[in-house]
């Protein structure tokens, strides 16, 4: 009996190719796993592997994964031994292994560095893949911005022209542009082919060729076609045949060549092996090239200073043959094409002005290209200074910022109010309509037609540049809004952290409150009525009593964890600290860069016009911050410093009353004030002596220094003390009984003829607007000694005289309570109004008069009523006498 034959080995044959192994070392491992898993699932289904036993499926998966996956599989811990042979459990284990290996920051970096490549759909596919790895909250917006930032030339211009550009529209424009370019190129090539003249000969023809006049070589129609150095196409020689002749280059603005054949390198970047490409653009000053002449190999060479280039380039003609060495560097041109240089050379460069010698490395390029000095070199040679403002342009934009969404909470016990529309002067109607349209186009306002429980009125204010500012009048809505009670930072919180600060920067958040979006419910609360319809605010409006706290909280969420950076309302303070100025400068620059990067990341736009960068001292909320401490801003105490001495006993009494009010903050007051107080005694003759003048100057100095002058504290109650005399108005801002800032001015000739109640109302308006940075957006208590003003405030606006109506309408943007105080207790404001500054800053009389006339013109009188008035005037004796007198009397 022979030996038993062994069982035949069953070989698993599959006509399908195995999927690629799982890549665990490069790229986004999590995304790699998702793609690999899908390919393995398709392979199993196609090859019939899903019908096999589970342990066989696991073996197939491990085979597809490769040796690294097998090693990882052997290290897995299994709760149940059977799970080891379950393909679903294996996929879960591998997915959990790969997921933590995704680095969102790195993926985001790769997303923004992704270069453009033709065709567009290929670039779009790569972009979507990158975006999926970044976990963006708004991937469509990020991809739209990336496309717009990456494309160049006319395509970028077309995209920027679009109003309310979406990703879908961006893709549509790019595809259409690419297709049209392709078609134009085909048409040009077809035209050249049709116009091409070829000489044909028939070797088998028996006819004798006709004799022709010999054509000179220069006129022959047979020629060798080469790529034109001006247009890039093949065509007959001659300027008239070149499609680029007479055209202007889109890149440099020069004539007679296309962008593809522009000979100016605007930027180059050094590319090492495995490094990503960097696409850079040159920085120019005022659109002109910045150049410098250097001596190289005893020859003067003109270099373009390119702050966007990573390397230096030099034309071949300036380099000796023995100096040129091979190079592995590849240059990326401005049009995103690559160029292989001729080599590299280490050359000695001499600055003709300073005679300094520098050993520099250059990339040697063909002669038609420009010689460049890159960023590192121009800084090393001190040819240009890189200012920190270069960062600001990246985050300064006309677009609205984005700090997220906020919700407004209202007290349900407060009954909603629907207010009527205010009339506006005819002369302002077109300006108001235009401003409303601008805000609607920017997404700040949204038209609304359906009913809303709250309807506020619109307030109009003029900016310093004469333009209009449209606001919501929040007086009624503020009574229902519930505050977050978020603590606002004060100067005292910041000062202890500035002990080692030497260099300061102050950045201003542009349109600060508009960085915060309102949700649908909150937006409907802010509905306001205008003569052109109702609008709701899509962004957090100015004037709401909750706006400051909401915005401050949002800003703190962005910068709260950055050391040495402080955000107060719409200002961002950066303090550079160090033992000396050099250390402080380095610390300051690092913090500034971090802040600007975070602004760009969180879509915070800055006001370039209000920036103060790298200064030894900055003005902040009425104080001057320096490395030596805090000084009082001269503007705050100008009203006291420029105050003239009293000229009579009454003036002395007012001065003594004001000083006595501050007695608890002044030491040795009675001794200093005694020479002046003596003038109030009956037996003492009036004589303003040198002792009186010295005491007066000493008191003014004491009144304008700490501890008398307080720092403003947003957490404390604000009291505004105002008063008007017959010739001037005065105001002082108080907190805890201590003055924060003084102000006064004289009345104009027309204002001095006003009724006293109008002067007092004007003093209230002057104080509110003069201290706007302290009074706007918060509760203010106003102290004034004019009792009738308290009564007029309780009446409807329509019942007030027209001049008061205008003043009171401008009050509406402020939230204040009016408190009557006896004149004897209103010492500071009373003294300032009588010892006023000669300045008429804040003069509103002319504006009030003109606006009042315009409002009168808008009175709606029916035609029938006008006819009755005209007929009654004709039969009225007194009116006819008045008419005759007016017509016959000569003007004086």
UniProtKB/TrEMBL annotation:
| Region of interest: Disordered | 196-218
Recorded hits in InterPro entries, A to Z, give: DNA/RNA_pol_sf (IPR043502), Peptidase_aspartic_dom_sf (IPR021109), Retrovirus_Pol_polyprotein (IPR050951), Rev_trsase/Diguanyl_cyclase (IPR043128), RT_dom (IPR000477), RT_RNaseH_2 (IPR041577)
Q: Where is the Reverse transcriptase domain?
A: 442-625
Q: Which PANTHER family match?
A: CCHC-TYPE DOMAIN-CONTAINING PROTEIN, PROTEIN CBG26694
**The protein, known as:** Uncharacterized protein K02A2.6-like
Name its species: Crassostrea virginica
Q: Name the encoding gene, please.
A: LOC111113576
């Amino acid at each position: 009996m022979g030996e038993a034959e062994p069982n035949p080995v069953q070989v698993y044959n599959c006509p399908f190719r195995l999927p690629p192994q799982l890549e665990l070392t490069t790229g986004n491992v999590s995304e790699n796993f998702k793609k690999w898993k899908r390919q393995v699932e398709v392979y199993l289904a196609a090859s019939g592997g899903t019908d096999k036993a589970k342990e066989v499926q696991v073996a197939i998966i491990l085979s597809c994964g490769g040796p690294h996956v097998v090693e990882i599989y052997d290290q897995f811990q299994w709760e149940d031994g059977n799970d080891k042979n379950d393909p679903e459990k294996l996929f879960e284990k591998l997915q959990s292994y790969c997921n933590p290996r995704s680095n969102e920051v790195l993926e985001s970096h790769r997303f923004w560095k992704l270069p453009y490549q033709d065709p567009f759909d290929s670039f779009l596919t790569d972009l979507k893949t990158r975006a999926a790895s970044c976990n963006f909250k708004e991937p469509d917006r990020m991809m739209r911005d990336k496309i717009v930032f990456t494309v160049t030339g006319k395509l970028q211009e077309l995209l920027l022209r679009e109003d309310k550009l979406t990703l879908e529209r961006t893709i549509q424009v790019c595809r259409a542009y690419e297709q049209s370019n392709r078609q134009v190129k085909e048409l040009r090539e077809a035209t050249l082919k049709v116009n091409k003249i070829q000489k044909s000969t028939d070797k088998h023809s028996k006819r004798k060729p006709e004799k022709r006049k010999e054509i000179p070589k220069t006129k022959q129609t047979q020629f060798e076609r080469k790529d034109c150095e001006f247009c890039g196409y093949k065509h007959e020689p001659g300027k008239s045949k070149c499609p680029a002749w007479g055209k202007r280059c889109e890149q440099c603005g020069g004539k007679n060549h296309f962008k593809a054949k522009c000979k100016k390198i605007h930027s180059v970047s050094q590319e090492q092996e495995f490094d990503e490409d960097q696409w850079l653009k040159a920085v120019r000053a005022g659109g002109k090239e910045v150049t410098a002449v250097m001596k190289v190999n005893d020859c003067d060479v003109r270099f373009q200073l390119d702050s966007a280039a990573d390397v230096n380039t030099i034309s071949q003609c300036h380099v000796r043959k023995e100096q040129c060495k091979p190079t592995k560097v590849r240059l990326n041109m401005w049009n995103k094409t690559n160029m292989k240089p001729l080599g590299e050379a280490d050359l000695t460069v001499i600055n003709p002005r300073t005679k300094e010698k520098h050993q520099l490395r250059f990339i040697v390029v063909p002669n038609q290209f420009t010689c460049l000095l890159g960023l590192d070199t121009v800084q090393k040679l001190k040819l240009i200074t890189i200012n920190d403002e270069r960062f600001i342009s990246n985050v300064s934009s006309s677009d609205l910022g984005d700090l997220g969404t906020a919700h407004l909470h209202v007290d349900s016990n407060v009954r909603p109010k629907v207010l009527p529309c205010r009339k506006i002067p005819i002369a302002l109607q077109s300006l108001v309509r235009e401003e409303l349209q601008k805000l609607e186009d920017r997404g700040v306002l949204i038209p609304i037609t359906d009913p809303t429980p709250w309807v506020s009125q619109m307030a109009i204010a003029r900016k310093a540049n004469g333009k209009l500012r449209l606001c919501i009048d929040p007086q009624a809505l503020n009574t229902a809004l519930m505050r977050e009670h978020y603590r606002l930072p004060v100067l005292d919180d910041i000062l202890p952290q500035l002990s080692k600060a030497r260099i300061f920067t102050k950045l201003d958040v542009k349109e600060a409150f508009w960085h915060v979006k309102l949700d649908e419910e909150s937006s409907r609360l802010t509905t306001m009525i205008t003569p052109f319809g109702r609008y709701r605010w899509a962004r957090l409006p100015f004037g709401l009593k909750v706006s400051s706290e909401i915005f401050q909280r949002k800003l703190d969420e962005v910068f709260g964890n950055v050391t040495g950076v402080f955000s107060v309302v719409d200002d961002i303070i950066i303090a550079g600290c160090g033992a000396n100025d050099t250390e402080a400068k380095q610390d300051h620059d690092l913090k500034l860069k971090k802040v600007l990067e975070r602004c760009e990341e969180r879509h915070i736009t800055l006001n370039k016009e209000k920036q103060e960068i790298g200064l030894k001292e900055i003005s902040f909320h009425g104080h001057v911050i320096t490395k030596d401490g805090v000084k009082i801003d001269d503007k705050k105490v100008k009203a006291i410093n420029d105050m003239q001495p009293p000229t009579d006993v009454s003036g002395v009494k007012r001065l003594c009353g004001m000083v006595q009010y501050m007695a608890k903050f002044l030491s040795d007051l009675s001794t200093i004030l005694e020479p002046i107080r003596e003038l109030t005694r009956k037996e003492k003759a009036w004589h303003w002596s040198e002792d009186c003048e010295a005491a007066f100057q000493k008191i003014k100095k004491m009144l304008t220094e700490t501890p008398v002058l307080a720092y403003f504290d947003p957490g404390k109650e604000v009291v505004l003390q105002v008063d008007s005399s017959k010739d001037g108005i005065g105001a002082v801002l108080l907190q805890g009984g201590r003055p924060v800032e003084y102000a006064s001015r004289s009345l104009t000739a027309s204002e001095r003829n006003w009724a006293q109640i109008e002067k007092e109302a004007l003093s209230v308006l002057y104080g509110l607007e003069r201290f706007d940075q302290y009074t706007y957006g918060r509760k203010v208590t106003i102290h004034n000694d004019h009792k009738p003003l308290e009564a007029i405030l309780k009446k409807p606006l329509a019942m007030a005289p027209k001049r008061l109506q205008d003043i009171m309408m401008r009050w509406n943007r402020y939230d204040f309570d009016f408190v009557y105080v006896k004149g004897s207790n209103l010492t500071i404001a009373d003294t300032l109004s009588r010892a006023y500054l000669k300045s008429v800053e804040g003069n509103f009389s002319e504006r009030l008069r003109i606006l009042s006339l315009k409002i009168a013109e808008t009175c709606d009188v029916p035609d029938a009523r006008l006819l009755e008035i005209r007929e009654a005037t004709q039969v009225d004796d007194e009116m006819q006498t008045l008419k005759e007198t007016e017509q016959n009397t000569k003007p004086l």
